[in-house]
Amino acid sequence: MNIPVHKLRLLFAVVLIAGATSACASTTPYPERDEVREFIDAMSTRHQFASDELSAMFGQVNFRQDIIDAMTRPAEKRPWHEYRPIFINARRIDGGVSFREEHAELLRQAEEKYGVPAEIVTAIIGVETLYGRSTGRHRVVDALATLAFDYPARGSFFRGELEQYLILAREENFDPLAITGSYAGAMGKPQFIPSSYRHYAVDFDGDDRRDLLDNVADTIGSVANYLSAHNWRRGQPVASRIRADARIPAELIARGIKPHTSVAEYAALGITTEDALPADAAAAVIELEGADGPEYWLGLDNFYVITRYNRSSLYAMAVYQLSAEIGTRHRKAAAWSATH
Question: Which of 111, 119, 128, 325 is catalytic?
Fold first, then answer.
């Protein structure tokens, strides 16, 4: 491929600027940076944090280039046929069945209170952290500070999350320098970002703490509460695959993943699914890149709710399909136990 000389020069200049920015960010201590001092002043004014204590804390915060790199290559950029095996595999299915059985009573209580099926809650925890086994290796404060001050594309968002994190650490009485999580600053067994932790975490076992780092009960209750707060519809389906012979107008795909057209209206267009769905339910066409070409699904309101946890149709489909596998295995085991 031939690239014009003027574009090569522009590209080279961008690379030089990006490299200089990273070098500057990685060598200048955070407390000496104007934008960090402004952040500290704002935290002091708005939330009564001690400026000297925050300055001391930022003196121990590290810029992480690997976090910037990770933000540019999330798993959700992969095609579905590569993304699916990461989460729909024997390890996560077996682990989900074990988690479902071990915490059956907590999951039952959460489903009764919030209306979210046990398999969906289990699958989210399975996709996020392999049922609490892999909660992230990055210090949360390093991740949030790096993204807040050295990732301009989403700097404003992550400054907000850094603010929420420091407030959360004070509220929940933990050391902000001690917590590890994902490269995007999500933490605990359910991988809540700080604002979600503050707004949706619940004390599900009544011990007067909202502990998503070590407490399974709080994790289960908080995941269910999060989905319920985002309008999970109790007893309603999530998604169904569209029959292979259907013709999908491009404009339906272009309308996005938020449900907009009724199942009955799709049927009138010749678009029907492998499972029976309520005729009046709203749905959206979900297009996934399979190994042998595109596959199409109807995603209903509950599918869209799952994307509020992670705004990716690939993520929501992985959760849904993992939950289906776990549910099938659980029901088979229960039926076998009932007859033996």
Answer: 128
